[in-house]
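On clarity, I found the account of how folds are encoded harder to follow than it need be. Since the whole study asks how a given chain folds, the encoding of that fold should be made plain. For illustration, here is how one protein appears when written out as sequence plus structure tokens:

:::
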Amino acid sequence: MLDTDQLRSFLAIVDTGSFTRAGERVHKTQSAVSMHIRRLEEELGCALFVKQGRAARLTEEGERLIDYARRMIQVESGAVAALSRKGLRGAVRLGIPDDYAEAFLADILTEFNRRQPLVAVSVVCENSAELNAQIHAGAIELALITDHEDVTGFELLREEPLVWVASPRFKPPEGAPIPLAQGSPTCLWGKATKAALADWPVATHGLFFSKNYTAVINVVRAGLAATALPIGMIGPGLQPLGENDGLPNLPQTRMGLIFAAGRASAEAKALADSIRFAIAEQSRKAA
């Protein structure tokens, strides 16, 4: 039988990348986390990590254990929530732009449902500036947004460069302006691309505009135009472009959490934990 406390320590190391930060997450000392891993390895008869300096790298067996461990923790959490009074049973309101929603929301809600299966989640999809305003008005409890100058209390989760992307079929006529698909005038990525293009010698023109991310990305996947995305959000049917393709380099973009004023509810804190986990897990897999 595998001990779920030991599995929690194992997953905490997977998620945070170190025994020290794992101890902080599961509220145990580093030595206690190390003991959990030793006992788990003894039970399974194989090594789960190989130490590399202060970091820990998963072995092949450790990689294979991840999905089993997550399912076991999910079943245990679901049983506790359903049959006792320890699980949360309220509701929480999350704000997220639709581009982030397409890339991350399924993983976020899957992870949150594993931990808190009885909590209802309401999702508001707006751009980052609008979500920041809704946070200040108390209309939503937390939001996953792109950092910008009007934001306060921002918790950074991921920083990466913006890049131009297009379909492999994208072939603008030689000598013609490069067609672009862009979001709303308040889109932060759109503002960054506009600034980069201001003094750029190659001509571009706006072919398609929409505040709806799905509409923009479908135009791009059809090979009709290029757009800008964080490098980690380049999905199927897209490839990065650069100066050799006639487009300038773009700046970094920062994604993170903001919270409504006052003490966060237990449901909001739990959802924030799932967001941190889902973003970290996607970054780990990409790396």
In short: The chain has two domains: 4-83, 88-287.
